[in-house]
Amino acid sequence: MTVWRYDTLPLLFGYSPLPVSRFLLTLRFSSSPNLHFLDDSLEYLATIRAMDIVGINESEKEAIFRVIAAILHLGNIDFANGEEIDSFVIKNDKSRFHLKTAAKLLMCDAQGLEDALIKRMMVTPEEIITRTLDPASAVVSRDGFAKTLNSRLFDWLVEKPTCVKKV
């Protein structure tokens, strides 16, 4: 599991089963150490309380968890070589499920998200050139997009209390 996905997990471990299923997430256990002195449900409740204190309303909480869930789904998208020379695609049905779910959570078009992850556009004075990324570059693109989502969410969370105080 990569670092950028790790810090979202305590929130989801504490989330009740109904909302977690709404985000189409399942818990997968790995060989990562479990810190027995930490209670994820208590961490979740403390996070929700902190959100209440800084003025984050229910629809904003929902949006926050949608973004977190989308980031987790993005991390499960794999890429592969296509059947044609220099063509690259979403690897399999499992990856396509995660792509469609991430798009749904982000409220965007799945094909548009796929294109954003596997294609690059270069604009020249004469034309627009679109090229498909190789699988390794698509992974870098996917991770960069997930990190950008995470960063923008963090920036918004830092700014939110400041906006509440100004009002």
Automatic annotation (TrEMBL):
Domain Myosin motor residues, every copy: 1-167
Keyword set, alphabetical order: Actin-binding, ATP-binding, Motor protein, Myosin, Nucleotide-binding
GO annotation (BP), single: actin filament organization
Domain of life from the UniProt record: Eukaryota
Keyword 4Fe-4S applies: no
Pfam families found in the cross-reference section: Myosin_head
Cellular-component GO terms for this entry: cytoplasm; membrane; myosin complex
One annotated GO molecular function: ATP binding
Keyword Lipid metabolism: no
Gene3D superfamilies on file: Myosin VI head, motor domain, U50 subdomain
Family named by the database record: Belongs to the TRAFAC class myosin-kinesin ATPase superfamily. Myosin family.
PANTHER family: MYOSIN (PTHR13140), MYOSIN-17 (PTHR13140:SF772)
Protein name, as recorded: Myosin motor domain-containing protein
